[in-house]
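>> Question from a student workshop board

For tomorrow's exercise we were told to take the sequence and the ligand below, predict the bound structure, and bring the output to class. My setup keeps failing. Could a helper post the expected result so I can at least see what it should look like? The ligand is magnesium ion.
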Amino acid sequence: MQLRGVGKTTEKYLARLNIFSVQDLLFHLPSRYEDRTKRLPIQKMRAGHVVLIEGVIQSVETPLHTRTKLLCELSDETGETHLRFFHLPLFLKKALTVGNRLRCFGMARLGPHGIEIIHPEFQVIAKGQFVPTETHLTAIYPTTQGLTQNTLRKLIAEALQKIRQENNANELLPAHLITTHAMPAFIDALHCIHQPPSQTNCQDLLEYKTAWQKRLIFEELLAHRVSLLHAKQLFQTHPSTALTVDSESNNLLTAFREQLPFSLTNAQERVCQEIGHDLAQKNPMLRLLQGDVGSGKTVVAALAMLRAVQNNQQAALMAPTELLASQHYQVFKRWLEPFQIEVVFLSSAVKTKERKATLAAISSNHAKVIIGTHALFQQDVIFSKLALIIIDEQHRFGVHQRALMREKGSTDHFHPHQLIMTATPIPRTLAMSFYADLDCSIIDEMPASKATISTNVLATTRRDEVIARIKENCLQGKQAYWVCPLIDESEAIDAKAAIAAAAELQAAFPTLQVALIHGRLKAAEKEAAMQAFQQGLIHVLVATTVIEVGIDVPNASIMVIENAERLGLAQLHQLRGRIGRGTIASHCILLYQPPLSEISTARLGVMRETNDGFKIAERDLALRGPGEVLGERQTGTLGWRVADLMRDHHLLEDVKKSAGYVVHNHPELIAPLIRRWITHSEIQVNPDL
Ligand code: ADP
Ligand code: MG
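>> Workshop helper replied:
Here is what the output should look like for this input. Compare the format with yours to find the bug.
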């Protein structure tokens, strides 16, 4: 580190705080502040207040038979107080002699002799010396044992001075943005966060409400969005195979459409056109397909894949779970094999001999449609002519994972087109920050024949009633899901809850078939249970949330979710999306453990009121903030320095506009912004910038 007084030891301590450079040091922000700017007359000390006082030592005693090692009496012209020490290094003890003038800082409390301070920070003021009090609030930093606040403060003050000398080289926002937003300059913002003027409101600082903090938050959000936009621009300079299909001719697409038992909704038609247009380009498509559960994304995916096949190219579809991948495989086999298209399946559960054959089919371009889990992107999987990658249920993957996958599917010359499908309706503001690198298509219409779903919210005390109702319905030929959600950190314990529920239900329904599915089962076992359920051989499928995503069994029309109060809205909506997929009127029963907290009451109320995923997502955002909506993983792994999506999401709309402005008018700022804010970035920076 290029700062004075940073030896090997300090460097080691700083490393523990992830501080490796002057910049890291500057971004090591205070966790709180103390006001040491005003000296308080001793007489005015009140218990519970943190105070700065100054006085002369009147007496020093070492009381017998107490824990107190040293008790000092200190007085100024207004009164006297005590300083109490339970332990004290020798060199400090020496400073505490009668007649010395001390400046002390600490929390006043009521002691046996009146107001006192335990273990104040203190400094001896030599006779005749004038030591001004601090001119700004004192920052308290997160630190590590061995590294004092004073050392940190000194280093940071020096770092601030150092970058001051660089004049405006630190300013990465265009003047236009700074003026229109009336923002402070970067260096001033940083300076004031580390050394706030004495009149600053501490509460505002703690809540990140000051203009200085907002300036940094804004810049960080902006940098993030700029980096995604930039990654997209960069990616789209690569060549890819143009997948053109003559719409008049008798091709695979028309043939496939003709044999579908339904016709596409207007919304499906529209997104198919958007996708078709992108795929016909010589640069890769990067498109997000959003559509609520049951809106019919799979058939849109199939039509996109057929465009690749029609051009003698390959298309791969990746799903986040084994279960979902294998279900897609069944569907695509059924749909595409009549057209002599070879569909193969790959996951970590596909072993040795079979795997070898599959890999050979993939590398020889024999297999045209490849379905699987992220096993698709293992090193030994070599595609022959991969022109399109589709990722289903994107919300399980992070932003950076996505960038990585893009690279993996690429050959030297060609980059595949990419379509990402998600059923998680993401409120617009949040979607912007997470999907800035994607164009967006939305299916905003449900297939007409969709059955109604009604939702009841019941206390678990009425569980027996519910069981009786399910029995009745299943005896009439209906099928039901019984969901025991993940409530424990450990899969093992959750699996147990599901196992117990399955046993209980089987006992209650002696003439009906109950099956069980949870994360601890082998892939083949899960699949066998799923298939039996699909074929109607099983009446009640007891499951953990493994069935949350994508599972499609149109005959299943009842869902019971236990401990529903513990699940987030997004997850409840996903789960409920498993029913109402056919033509049968469907029922969802949310069982909760009373008493319900206010927020759980509100959430379950939302579920009862609406089936509209976008409405639910907006309500979710209002109730719980983005962490809930996007999942901890996605908000957490971004590694923000200052920003907090929970607190700052209202800025995103503005950030979006400003990021566009920066990318268009100030491309020279892109690289420095990414370097400043996006640590350990997997996002490439164009070396030409
Ligand atoms: P999701 O968007 O949740 O992935 P799916 O693609 O699984 O939804 O579709 C849900 C169900 O709706 C499937 O059984 C599918 O065959 C059916 N479906 C899709 N599109 C239509 C349509 N236009 N009309 C009628 N049913 C449709
Ligand atoms: Mg789906």
